[in-house]
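Researcher: I've been going back and forth with a colleague about how Putative beta-barrel assembly-enhancing protease might be arranged in three dimensions. Neither of us has a model we trust, so I'd like an independent prediction. The organism is Vibrio marinisediminis, in case that matters for your notes. Sequence below.
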Amino acid sequence: MFKQTRSLIALCIATTLSIPSAPLMANSLNLPDIGTAASSTLTIDQELQYGDAYMRMLRNRAPIITDPVLSEYVDTLGHQLVANADDVKTPFTFFMIRDRNINAFAFFGGYVAIHSGLFLHAQSESELASVLAHEIAHVTQRHLARSMEEQARRSPVTMAALAGSLLLAIAAPEAGMAAITATTAGNIQGQINYTRSNEKEADRFGIATLSKAGFDVSAMPRFFGRLADEYRYATNLPPMLLTHPLPQDRITDTRARAQNYPTKQVSASLDYHLARSRIVARYAGIKSDAAIDWFSRQEAKASNDIKPALQYGRALVYLDNQQLDKAAPILEQLHKQDRNNRFYIDSLSDLYLAQNKPEQSITMLEQALKSEPNNPVLMINYANSLLKQEKYAQSIRVLQRYTHDNGNDVNGWHLLSEANIKLGNSQEDLAARAEILALKAGWNKAIQYYSQASQMAELGSLEQARYDARIDQLMVQRDRFMALQ
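Model: Here is an independent structure prediction for Putative beta-barrel assembly-enhancing protease. You can compare it with whatever you and your colleague have in mind.
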């Protein structure tokens, strides 16, 4: 449900895939001295505050993919890696940006973004995991904070000015890069060398994490090598390779290191290929005829274990083009073969709603929820199906629980707003819309909406007390946000 490019390379100062130095022994984590643990620059609490602020700005400005199924997949994969990473000091949040350019980046507070274009170039889950593992290492080793510490050591600029430049780089990349250049004038070569050291460390910790998490460690050099070969003679390079080339020494270093880990036979991940098919069908900007042709050609040469993913992708194209008679038999057969697969459940729910059969969607989702009562994909689809069957009060009850547990998902707040409009409950509609605005750093408008809701509520009621308490919270968050700038 909920179908939905600008490069964010400027954000990746010390946190994107870049150039390592000469190879070292592959299984050693003897690394160069690249600074302290950054405790003299930013505390973990401060990093969390910056990360939250950056994320709110990105929600407002970047084409973030809010697809519940893809979000669950990326989050599950990311946390499988985090569980096997060293030096984890912050919670992690993984999300996707709709952009065909190959890129990934990490920033304060454990936020890791990947471009949808990575799915178009990575050929296996291990290859995608290798990029995520690299970015996780940037966070666990606190490279962004260390970079700020190094810049402060080399120039008289204050920490506040450096942090403000980085914040601006996310909000307006071109202006942000100009500000960063101004604060680090005269230190370009030192910054390049420092970034290379960070990348060397991230590659090595990333491979160690891949191995412990059960992935194919050779996926990292294989992915790097294929990208280098693909764009070796290209005149129009993807943004990542323009600013962070892949020289042979980096590929050689990761290949040698991977060879020192035990060889693992990793079976193909159906969920990865389902996610990839969903992106090709809905987020790659490919015309429907071309997408159908691509899925058919891929299926003809695919192994049996990933053919269902290609059939699924073809069904999504049919569904999105209202060719329901073609989508239905494919989705129903896939669901019959794997009734707990949430990719299939989500899309079959969309099919039933498109066929004006919300009761079938509700029955299917209620059955699935018996096994996983709090699963966000099932809950959001269930609430949406109840809404479409005009069971507004029941939908609101589900959404209240959903937004309590998944407060950063705008989908839940949008549906809650819609359901309350249907019931004529203006004050709760305003409250839901205020939460959406707050997630995008629209503090003043959010406070205004809650103030209007408070004025509508009965004087002295619990509802009014709740709205007023939330106003106080938002004012504190707004002031903290503004102080970071």
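Researcher: What would you highlight for our discussion?
Model: I'd start with this: The chain has 23 helices and four strands. After that, consider the following. Strands lie at 64-65, 93-97, 104-107, 111-115.
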